[in-house]
Every structure is written in C-alpha cells, then in structure tokens.
C-alpha cells in the first residue's frame, strides 16, 4: 500500500462551488419551477458543526428588491428544497451559499452568485397572440418564408427587459438590427398539440429610449415542415406558422411597460423575406436580392407590408423549457479544400470539395464574395465520399442537405437559419476565384448540455472510439434524442436511447434534456395506447400504427432509471411513474401463462429483436439469429426489475410487491422456455447469453450462470473476436463476459479490428459511430442497403464498459453517493483513466501498470464514498479526498 488519502485542508478555508438550480448549468432564464431546488459542491469536507448560509435576492417586475437568508445543515447538498416563499412569474433571483460556523462566522468565501429567473408560470399571464403571414400560402412544403416586424416607443432606457418568445414553426428575433440570443431552431421539437416551450431572452441592452424595432424570421421547422422518411409528412401539426412575442419592460423608477404580438392594433406587419424555402432535411434556399435592408431597425418604411394574421394556439399548452437551448459550440476548420476537376465553367466559376475532418451536426457560414447579382452558389453536404471521391448522397435519401444562395452583388457572410446538416464533407458549386479556409466558418451545433464524462487510455484507437461515441451523441442530442442527423429521418427512436442512456448520462448532464423528452413519451403513450417507436410520433408507412415492441417500448422504464442512477433525483421518477407503470401494465397483458412475451405485434415487422444483427441481410435488419421472443422476454424482465426498484424508491409498496412478483414470473418463464440445465440456450448466440447474464436472469442459478458465461466466451473465441450482436445484445456482451470472469475475451472482442467490430469502424476512418457494423465495406464502398447512417450513437453504448471496467467507475447508489472503483487492466493497455462530474463533484479513477505493479489514483467527492473492487485485492472503502494505492499483480 502507498500513501494515505489526502484529506488535509492547509488553507483552513472551506469553499462552495458549482451552485446550480434544478438541473440547469449556470445562470438561466425562464425556469418553470416556483419552488426550485438548489445544489452545490464542497471542495473540502465541512466541519461537523458547520452550517450553510443561503442568501437570495429577489425582484419581481415593478416590485421591490429584497434579500432573504436562511441557515441549513451541510447535508444534503444536492437538490435541496426551496427554503423561501414560492416564486412568481418573471421573478429574478440572485443566490449564493457560504459555509459558516455555528455562530455564523465565515469558514470560506461565498459561492459565485447564481442568477436565475422564472418564466411565465401561468398560462393566463400570456397576453400575446401568435401572429404570422396574412396572405394565402401554398398548402404544401417549400413555402416562401415570412418576416414579421413592429416598432415601439419607450419612455426611457429600460432597467430590465425580457422577451418571452415561441413559435408555431421556428423563429429568430432581431431588435434594432441586432440578433436576439445565440440559440437556433427555437423553440425546438415537442408534441406541439400537447405542449410548446416558450423561451426567455434578456434584451435589456438592445433597447433604447425612444423608437425601437423588433423583427422576427419565421420558418417551417418541425411544425409544418416535411418530417420523416418514405416521403415524410408535411403540415403534421398545422399549416400556418406564427410567432408569439411578449416583451416585459421595467424602468429605473419601477414602472412597467409591455408589448404583445397581436393582429388587432395595426402595428404588426409581415412580408415575404429572402428565405425562398427552408426544410430541416433538404436545406435552405436564400435569395439576397429579396432582402429588406434595415427591416428590423426603427424608421424602416413598411408601408407596403401587410398586416399580420392571428394564428391560434391554445395558451394552456405553453410551458417553460426544462432543457438547454441548441447552440453553436465550436468550429471545424477545413483539413483540405480541393478544386473538383472538370468543373471550371465558362462563367468563371468552379466547384470545390471541402473535408472538415469531423462528421457531426454543423452548418457552414460562408463569405459570399466576388459574386455578381443573380449568381448562385450551391452547397451540398454528406457524411462520407464514394470511392470515386464524390459526395455519397444515396444514403441521405430525400434529405439531400442542399443549400442555395443567390447573390445580390454585395459581399456578405451567410449561414442557413432554419435547417441543420449532418456531414463531414461538402461541395461549394458556383464559386468565383480561389476558395480558402478564411472563407468558411463551419459551426458545430447541439443542445447546450454540460460535459460530465471523460475517458483516456494508452490505445489511440480506443480513444478514437470513445470520441466517436461522444460526437454521435452531440450530433443527435438536438432538441430531442434523434437517431441520425443527416438523412430523411432524424426521429426520436425510443430503442436507440434505451440502449445508450447510461452512456449518455455519464458523458453529459442529460437530466433536463431527457426528462423533457420523456414528457412527450408519456403524451404519445396516452394518445396511442402504447409507447411509439419514436417520439414525437409521426405516422409513416409501415410505422403508422404504434405497437408495443421490446427495447423500443422498454425505454419508458430504462431511461428514467438511467437518469435516477446518475442524478439521484426521485422527482424524475415521480414525473415518469405513470409512463413506467402504464408500460408494465400494458405488456403484462401480452404475456403467455408462463410469463413469456410471445404475442406478436400487429404490424408487418413484428418484434424487431436483435435489430441489425451483423448476420442479417442489408435489406432485412430484423432477420437476426436470436429468437425475438427471447429478446422481448429478457428486456421485459429487466423493465419489471427496474420498475420494482423505482416503486421502492418512491415508497409505492403495493406496486413494488406486484412488480417483484411479475419480475419473478417473467424470469422463470424465460428460464423455462429459453435455457437448458446445462447452461446452453435455445438461441446459441452471443446476444442470448449476454442478455441472460447481464439482466440477472441467471443470478439464482449460479451453476447455469457459470456455464452460460463459459459458452458466451466460447462463442466469442469461435467468432475470431468478431461482434455477433445487433442493437439488443451489443451493450451487454462485454459486461456479461466480465460478470462471468471472462475479461480476456471481452478485451479480445473490444480490441478486434476485423469487421464486424467497434474498432473496424475506427480503422476505416470513422469519426462518429455507425448505424451498421458494415456501413462502409472494407473496399470503401457503402453498404448496399437502403438504410445506413454514419452517425448513430446506439453502438456507442460500449462506452459504458469503457467507463466502468477499463476506467473503473461505476455507480452503486443513485446519484453516485456511493460508487465502485473497479478497473480491470487488460487488452495490452498500460494506463487508462476516466472521470465523471457527479452531483457531488468530480469522481475519477486513473491507473497504470509498470513491472506488474498496478498504481491507482482515485478522487472521491465530498459527500460520497467509494469502494475499491479489484480482483484479488481486499475490498476497501474510501472517503472524500484523493487516494493513491499500489498493488502487485
């Protein structure tokens, strides 16, 4: 053993950091909680007799500012209930916390002040109407998009001004010629006929005394744009778009003023703008010759604009968002720019191919220079190239991701507003002169979640694999958890996030993001009588009538459980409990008398089973080796077990007993129907054994569990280290091997570079996780199937094993109040590390091996404990602090 843990506090001060409200990161406007909970992190364990001083300064529009204080015990420090009177709509709060002695003397500096505000909490406080174009529009997609504007007079410079804004469609605002906010695709995608999020913007600095102008760009977005595959659906939620804008102003003397969008006072007008059409999948066409210079500035002549028309939307459905907005986070610089041979035109233009080095959700902002009025520049986007070096667009299907810019003869920087693209490569056609990196700013977009998980090792391929999963998550966490960011799909497939949720919650703080999405899972469950294949649900061809299917429907239980294990928030379980219980009760009615789920769904594909099993033909991804009823029963047994734990956490004793009995019944049915006494299974596949072991279905049969583990390891060896699982089995094959003492085979499977394998994708140059193991063939050609994507996160669920078994961090208790440090060196690695920002602070594990000595460094946050669990080593419990241990292997 090496040095003792470092718990000393040499400065004698005890600081508090990372003060946050609910699950928001940092300052936030427009929360929907009147009694929000606060959380914070201690840098050192507080003295036993210490107290926590909480100070809040509150201000309501038009009211007085007051400061309130209270003193609390030092624990709990996570999601501490609101200690003051409830907040009202549009109330501003500045909060700080500080450790003090029993006599209230400071023990350290106050935390950084946290600023947050409530949004409009009650629907009757919405006085604004939705307004949009008043002219007759085409009834289908590709409509010319409108601009909306108004001018207002203010008696003075505002001391505080908030714009509360949402849209049927998507919207961006400008005030006095300046952009409002830095988010995109507002208000995001929800089940619009049940709820619509209204966002809050601080516009104090943009308003002036006297005359001001407000302008709004409107787009079709998810509301009436064409959604989905097989031709998609346009106008799914409505065929008229409109903006709701409510401006609330407070002057220095405390007086107030309000401005509401409306169709009756004659000051709100609309006209066609320069966006000729815009589609989330197909791209945007912009004609700069149709611009209205100065249209969002005061004094603009809008005499030829038309009065707006009201677009009705039920105000009871408006709510404050729980998730962060979509923002640009970084830029990808071109790694190469190449003139495409043979594209020089008689007019002096050419086509250029750009490689940005990274596949992700992004948009190009291009400096349109040297163009004549009427010149057109066309930008196309794709994830990969064909073997001949051209953009691979076949796999995009209808979602061709093509932007077109028509110049007015003036140099300008341009980026599309109301579309999003998934790509690494792009072409720019119709460019005059030389194209350089200085002409392109390629911005990466995703929902603005806080990063919470990291991993590193001595194997560069493994690190790239982890980065690929990270990039795929970023690319697909765009308002909702989508399956892919590029082709004509981009839907919230429930099966994908079921499998990826534990990895997602480790890598980013997804509490608000996924809880927000789960609201719509419940909305759609109530509407359709089951959990649909994807949420929000849009009926499309063979997927038009939702049916209960395993894995996809089981997300109703798996996602809330993953959120709870990472965040420890029982309120998440309370909010989602009706979703959980309705799913369990529905599927329990489909079981045979022996507890097996063998009722076939009433649609052509039936159960999807081990979807995308690598042995399945390209055009039939559901044709897997593992029995579908086996997969369905195993997943439902897992859901029943999780539902039992959820009911226990919520104190629902009757439900807990009922779900426990159901778990036992389904598990026994699984054992009787699909396993043999010798440990083999009716489906002799990696998937079958992985599910039986990882879901604990063999835990009461220890001999059979050992034999099943041995057979799984044998199958892995027989496969030559190739993966033989699809969606259902892939997240669990490595954990199942580890659980039965076969880490060597697990490492062999992980480290293989033969197709199909995780690292095969990496060796083929992947920068994101592919949908299929062989989305690209070894010769560089694309999978011939009609469905393939190079940016799906589901197979990136392997990162859960990288974090827990290689890096060695695994939550034992919800919210990481207790966690295991259990690294298992292997696979030729000589060092690895992982860290996770828990609700209590940063937990980390880093190890290295040198001359058969394992050196381990562990960081345990204040308020948590860790257990070292290493094979052949006596277990040890660690308290808060940094620890170093050495073991002889």
UniProtKB/TrEMBL annotation:
Limits of the Bacterial alpha-L-rhamnosidase N-terminal domain: 157-330
BP-aspect Gene Ontology terms: carbohydrate metabolic process
Domain Alpha-L-rhamnosidase six-hairpin glycosidase residue range list: 450-806
Enzyme Commission number, as recorded: 3.2.1.40
Enzyme class (EC, first level): hydrolase
InterPro entries attached to this UniProt entry: 6-hairpin_glycosidase_sf, 6hp_glycosidase-like_sf, Alpha_rhamnosid, Bac_rhamnosid6H, Bac_rhamnosid_C, Bac_rhamnosid_N, Ig-like_fold, Rhamnosid_concanavalin
Gene Ontology MF term list: alpha-L-rhamnosidase activity
Sorted UniProt keywords: Hydrolase
Protein name in the entry: alpha-L-rhamnosidase
Organism of provenance: Bifidobacterium pullorum subsp. saeculare DSM 6531 = LMG 14934
């Amino acid at each position: 053993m090496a040095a003792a843990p470092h718990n000393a506090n040499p400065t004698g001060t005890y600081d508090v950091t990372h003060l946050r409200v609910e699950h928001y990161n940092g300052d936030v406007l427009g929360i929907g909680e009147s009694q929000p909970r606060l959380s914070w992190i201690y840098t050192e364990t507080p003295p036993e007799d210490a107290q926590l001083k909480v100070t809040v300064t509150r201000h309501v529009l038009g009211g007085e500012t007051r400061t309130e204080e209270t003193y609390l015990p030092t624990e709990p420090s996570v999601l501490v209930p609101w200690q003051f009177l409830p907040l009202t709509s549009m109330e501003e709060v500045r909060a700080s916390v500080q450790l003090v002695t029993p006599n209230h003397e400071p023990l350290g500096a106050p935390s950084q002040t946290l600023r947050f505000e409530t949004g409009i909490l009650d629907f009757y406080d919405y006085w604004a109407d939705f307004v949009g174009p008043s002219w007759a529009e085409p009834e289908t997609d590709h409509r010319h998009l409108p601009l909306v504007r108004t001018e207002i007079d203010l008696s003075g410079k505002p001391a505080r001004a908030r714009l509360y804004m949402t849209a049927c469609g998507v919207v961006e605002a400008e005030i006095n010629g300046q952009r409002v906010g830095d988010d995109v695709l507002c208000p995001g995608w929800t089940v619009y006929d049940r709820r619509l999020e209204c966002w809050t913007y601080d516009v104090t600095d943009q308003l002036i005394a006297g005359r001001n102008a407000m302008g709004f760009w409107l787009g079709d977005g998810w509301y009436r744009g064409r959604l989905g595959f097989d031709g998609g659906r346009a106008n799914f939620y409505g065929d008229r778009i409109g903006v709701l804008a409510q401006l609330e102003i407070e002057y220095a003397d405390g007086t107030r003023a309000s401005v509401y969008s409306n169709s009756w006072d004659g000051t709100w007008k609309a006209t066609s703008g320069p966006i000729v059409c815009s589609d989330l999948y197909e791209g945007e066409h912009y004609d700069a010759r149709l611009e209205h210079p100065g249209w969002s500035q005061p004094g603009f002549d809008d005499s030829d604009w038309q009065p707006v028309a009201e677009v009705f939307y039920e105000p009871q459905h408006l709510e404050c968002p729980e998730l962060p907005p979509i923002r640009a986070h970084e830029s990808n610089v071109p790694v190469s720019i190449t003139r495409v041979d043979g594209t020089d035109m008689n007019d002096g233009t050419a086509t250029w191919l750009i490689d940005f080095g990274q596949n992700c959700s992004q948009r190009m902002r291009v400096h349109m220079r040297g163009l004549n009025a009427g010149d057109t520049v066309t930008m196309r986007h794709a994830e990969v190239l064909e073997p001949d070096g051209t953009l691979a667009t076949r796999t995009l299907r209808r979602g061709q991701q093509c932007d077109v810019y028509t110049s007015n003869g003036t140099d300008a920087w341009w980026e599309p507003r109301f579309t999003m693209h998934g790509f690494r490569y792009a072409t720019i056609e119709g460019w005059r002169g030389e194209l350089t990196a200085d002409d392109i700013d390629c911005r990466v977009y995703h929902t603005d979640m806080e990063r919470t998980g990291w991993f590193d090792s001595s194997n560069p391929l493994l690190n790239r694999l982890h980065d690929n999963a990270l990039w795929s998550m970023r690319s697909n966490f765009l308002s909702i958890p989508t399956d892919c960011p590029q082709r004509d799909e981009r839907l919230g497939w429930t099966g994908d996030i079921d499998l990826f949720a534990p990895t997602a919650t480790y890598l980013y703080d997804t509490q608000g993001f996924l809880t927000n999405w789960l609201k719509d899972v419940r909305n759609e469950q109530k509407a359709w009588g089951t959990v649909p294949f994807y949420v929000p649900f849009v009926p499309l061809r063979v997927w038009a009538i939702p049916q209960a299917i395993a894995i996809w429907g089981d997300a109703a239980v798996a996602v809330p459980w993953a959120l709870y294990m990472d965040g420890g928030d029982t309120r998440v379980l309370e909010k989602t409990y009706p979703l959980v219980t309705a799913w369990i009760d529905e599927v329990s009615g489909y079981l045979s008398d022996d507890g097996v789920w063998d009722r076939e769904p009433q649609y052509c594909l039936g159960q999807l089973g081990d979807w995308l099993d690598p042995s399945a033909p390209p055009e039939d991804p559901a044709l897997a080796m593992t029995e579908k009823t086996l997969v369905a029963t195993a997943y439902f047994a897992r859901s029943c077990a999780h539902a039992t734990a959820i009911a226990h956490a919520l104190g629902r004793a009757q439900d807990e007993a009922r779900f426990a009995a159901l778990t036992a019944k389904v598990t026994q049915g699984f054992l009787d129907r699909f396993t043999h006494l010798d440990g083999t299974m009716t489906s002799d596949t990696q998937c079958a054994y992985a599910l039986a072991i990882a879901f604990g279905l063999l835990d009461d049969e220890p001999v059979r569990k050992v034999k099943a583990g041995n057979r799984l390891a044998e199958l892995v060896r027989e496969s030559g280290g190739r993966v033989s699982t699809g969606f259902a089995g892939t997240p669990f094959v490595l954990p199942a091997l580890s659980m039965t003492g076969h880490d060597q085979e697990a490492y062999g499977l992980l480290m293989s570079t033969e197709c199909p394998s995780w690292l095969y994708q990496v060796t083929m140059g992947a920068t994101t996780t592919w949908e299929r193991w062989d989305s690209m063939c070894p010769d560089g050609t694309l999978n011939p199937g009609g469905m393939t994507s190079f940016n799906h996160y589901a197979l990136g669920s392997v990162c859960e094993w990288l974090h827990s078994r290689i890096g060695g961090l695994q939550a034992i208790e919800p919210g990481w109040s207790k966690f295991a440090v259990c690294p298992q060196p292997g696979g030729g690695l000589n060092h690895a590390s992982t860290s996770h920002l828990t609700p209590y602070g940063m937990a980390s594990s880093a190890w290295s091996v040198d001359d058969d000595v394992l050196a381990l460094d562990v960081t345990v946050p204040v308020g948590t404990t860790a257990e070292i669990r290493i094979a052949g080593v006596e277990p040890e419990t660690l308290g808060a602090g940094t620890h170093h241990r050495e073991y002889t292997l």
